[in-house]
Amino acid sequence: MSTADHGVEATQPALSADNGVAHHPMTEKDQVIGQSEKALSVTPDGEEPNDEEMKSLRHTAENLPMSAWLVAIVELCERFTYYGMSGLFQNYVQRPFDGSQGRGALGMGHQGATGLTTFFQFWCYVTPILGAVIADQYLGKYKTIVLFCGVYLVGLLILVCTSIPAALANGAGLGGFIAAVLIIGLGTGGIKSNVAPLIADQYKRKKMAVKTTKKGERVIIDPALTIQRIYMIFYGAINVGSLSLLATPYMERDVGFWSAYLLCLCMFAAGTLVVICGRKYYVVRPPQGSVITDAFRALWIMVINRNMDAPKPTWQAENGGNRTNLPWDDHFIDELKRALVACRVFCFYPIYWVVYGQFSSNFVTQAGQMQGHGIPNDLMQNFDPISIIVFIPILETLVYPLLRRMHIPFRPISRISLGFIVASLAMMYAAIVQHLIYSAGPCYDSPLCDASVVDGTAQGNRIHIAIQTPAYMFIGISEIFASVSGLEYAYTKAPPSMKSFVQSMYLLTNAFGSALAEALTPAAYDPAIMWMFAGLAIASFSVGVIFFAIYRHLNAQEDAMNALDADDPDVPPPRRGEKKEEN
Q: Which residue stretches does the UniProt record annotate as biased composition, category Basic and acidic residues (predicted)?
């Protein structure tokens, strides 16, 4: 057969084997295109995408419901109070009341101040466990937040009353400060473990859905991306609130600590009113009975049987187990196993929190060792939230959508690892700044020595305080990746009945970080602190690399783990001891 004949034959219609009807043969490429077009045409808006659409259509997030914005406002007020108050603690505790080193109160020195402020951070991140147990098992998130708002207000009132000059002059400062931070730490812990899951509870979609935009583009609404957006906005609200440090350092310097603490008290009272007055707008989930107790019982069964599936009723039945009246089902154990994955990921976070905690303690002291040119040393902390407020919109509106359009996944594990590495840059830069301080006069490696005293007040070495700015900015950028992703991971991997408890486990890593920082307090002196900064830089970078190497496989499992609750109703069915949902 000639080449021409072959070409003619290739264009002839082929007969079907069943009815003899002539059909033109389809190439493999035509078949794929046809299948793709068919697949894309069968899913109407509002329904779940098929496999082909999952691969080809762009994933996008939804807008937040109004109730989520109300929760964000509440968190803004609480963080305004927390940072505006605690950002002054280093000076309040370190400097003496006589004003010889600038405005102060307790005069306990650098190490004493670092020790007490680090303890406060530790306490604030241990107490969320109590708030989580009360919320998940007894009162629910909303009522628990209201309860601990009252506790918080009592602590703030004590702090204000014992920081007025008359109280400090009569020796009430130290006792009042300790009582206040214990009560405030209890209040903020009860709020923190519940407000983060409460804001995500306001969003009800659990399954992906196809949607046609106003421009005619077919996209996939992805609940996981919406949860990511919720926590980006939530974290943005946190850092808008923390800009209280733009005001409170000047109030400290020009009026007194009591005025700054009073401002914080008033702002928190306003946030509490928003919580109470906005009650009817919130999606409120009821407590889930004995869920925390049941979870620990299930974990104990896993341990003694050395099998993750041992607490399942089906496993007990199939393996002759003697536990036949278990108060949970197999699905609860699958959820618990997923939560354990999240808790395992959190194990590396204490190193990150050691680095993060430097910005409100040793960075403040470092700023005080430089020439301020009228800028209070504790004002520099504002560059942390400012960098977050600037970079969150850039990431959310430009970088992340661009990555999604290019089908480049940027999963939580990758973001967390990057956060650790960026945090290491902050420590490296801080070590460089400390070296520059020690290289400048008049005191060199003994800042604030007698040679620097002018008009009765010690001055810093001859280096401008603004040079510290990049250290705070690196810390802020690292938070967007590490801290925001941690909040997101804690929510999405927690069982519906244990959102607050898993959130408290994430927050507990901050307490462990504070404990590690407490152990480093003996190194917080000149000139050893420069080497402490360098050591933290190496540790944070190394942990970031190790973290990614160990957990990168979880990126591939992200959608499957997030879909575990997709077939559940908005509120899980009551188990033993549970109540029905309250609207």
A: 573-583
